[in-house]
Amino acid sequence: MASPKYLAVFIALVAVFNISNAQGLKLGFYRKTCPSVEAIVKTTTARVISQAPTLAAPLLRLHFHDCFVRGCDGSVLINSTRNNQAEKDAIPNQSLRGYGVIDRVKSAVEKKCPGVVSCADILALTARDAVSLIKGPIWKVPLGRRDGRVSIITEALINLPPPFANITQLKASFASKNLTTKDLAVLSGSHTIGTSHCSSFSSRLYNFTGRNDTDPTLDPNYIIRLKSKCKPADLTTLAEMDPGSFKTFDEDYYTLVAKRRGLFQSDAALLDDPETKAYVKLQATSHGSTFFKDFSKSMEKMGKIGVLTGNAGEIRKRCAFVN
Ligand code: HEM
Ligand SMILES: *[C@@H]1O[C@H](CO)[C@@H](O)[C@H](O)[C@H]1NC(C)=O
Ligand SMILES: *[C@@H]1O[C@H](CO)[C@@H](O)[C@H](O)[C@H]1NC(C)=O
Ligand SMILES: *[C@@H]1O[C@H](CO)[C@@H](O)[C@H](O)[C@H]1NC(C)=O
Ligand SMILES: *[C@@H]1O[C@H](CO)[C@@H](O)[C@H](O)[C@H]1NC(C)=O
Ligand SMILES: *[C@@H]1O[C@H](CO)[C@@H](O)[C@H](O)[C@H]1NC(C)=O
Ligand SMILES: CC(=O)N[C@H]1CO[C@H](CO)[C@@H](O)[C@@H]1O
């Protein structure tokens, strides 16, 4: 009788199937446990964005910073404690905003379905809704992320590419998250919204190689304009990344980069690789013919990085604290 052997194979298959199932996110994950979650997130986000459209950018960036450090597990939201310095306190995070919005959305969801929806899922939904509310694309957000219990300051520095990263470093950073060179070109288009502190790019204006020089890859006319906005050693002024339309999600970013007016070295670096360069030129000349479609696809991929599912992690009650 071969049945014990078949039984073993069957059990093994079930185990494998269950594991791979547990690792997947699902559309409508909360259909039974919190059917109104997407509506609550959307209404609350819309209320915020209609009053303060500039908050859409930081909400999108929060999701990115969450996903690139320990996966999309809400770890970016955890506060430091006496014994632990969290991601929040790392240099790249010092310019993050929007935590209050996430808390507000989470409270609204908790009121309806206490202890059910993770902060990581709320972050993913809020980022999506915020972008779509400022005329950006809308994308599917499969749900079922669980919240992590760990947030470590040094991991933010290691995992988030700095604004002075070159193309090799950027491609490697994205590849380490299973994102492609195309995803890099596409997701960089996020810089069509939002603002940056002068300090994130002022070396390009004043001291590029330590000899009081400028970055030769930056349009000299644009340098004049940026210098009038950002004085040397200015740590507080904010510059619009896509001047004139920094509150609207559009394809202008690629027009700027193609004109050598990308704000960061990491933006300019997209012209240093044949694939990313071709993408920039295509979107610049075709008025973003495929940008929204591409962006939706890449955001869905980003939202799946290193997620915790099944029984892993927890559903945090308050996003700033592990339970
Ligand atoms: C490719 C590598 C990337 C680098 C080096 C980078 C770097 C930066 C820096 C330095 C800032 C300005 C922070 C400040 O000084 O205030 C910024 C802002 C921003 N980034 Fe990125 N970023 C990258 C990719 C992304 C991705 C993938 C997204 C979203 C999916 C994103 C979304 C944003 C948004 C929306 C802002 C504006 C935030 C605000 O207005 O507060 N970035 N980024
Ligand atoms: C978490 O820390 C932030 C500053 O990093 C602070 O503004 C906020 O009040 C803290 N949250 C709570 C609930 O203590
Ligand atoms: C990118 O930066 C790394 C580290 O500084 C350096 O080793 C590499 O040569 C640079 N690559 C390019 C293409 O500039
Ligand atoms: C990338 O994909 C590999 C192989 O599928 C997987 O082992 C790894 O965990 C993934 N990394 C991330 C950050 O998702
Ligand atoms: C310019 O950079 C060099 C080398 O990093 C540094 O020693 C110098 O202090 C900087 N100059 C100014 C004006 O910040
Ligand atoms: C750079 O500029 C600073 C401040 O204006 C000046 O003190 C320094 O001597 C200059 N350094 C060089 C190498 O020109
Ligand atoms: C929003 C936030 O938590 N910002 C923190 C970033 O890190 C600095 C110092 O490391 C803190 O002072 C900020 O509160």
| Global shape | globular
Roughly how much helix do the residues carry, as a percent range?
A: 40-55%
**How many domain regions?**
2
Just give the CATH class of the largest domain. Answer: Mainly Alpha
Instruction: Report the span from N to C terminus.
Output: 51 Å
Radius of gyration: 21 Å
Q: Report mean pLDDT, rounded to a whole number.
A: 93
- Biggest sheet details: 2 strands, antiparallel
CATH architecture of the largest domain: Orthogonal Bundle
The CATH topology of the largest domain is given as: Peroxidase, domain 1
The amount of beta strand, in percent, is: under 5%
Low-confidence spans: 13-22
Query: Biggest sheet, strands in spatial order?
Result: 1-2
What does this 3D model show about the protein?
The chain has two domains: 17-160, Peroxidase, domain 1 (Orthogonal Bundle), CATH 1.10.520; 167-300, Peroxidase, domain 2 (Orthogonal Bundle). Helix 2 packs antiparallel against helix 4, helix 3 runs antiparallel to helix 5 (119-133) and helix 8 (181-187) runs parallel beside helix 13 (274-285). It has helices at 3-23, 37-51, 56-68, 99-112, 119-133, 153-159, 167-175, 181-187, 203-206, 220-229, 252-258, 265-268, 274-285, 291-302; strands at 195-197, 238-240. It has a two-stranded antiparallel sheet with strand order 1-2. It is globular and about 55 Å long. The chain has 323 residues and is mainly α. One 2-acetamido-2-deoxy-beta-D-glucopyranose is lined by residues 79, 88, 320.
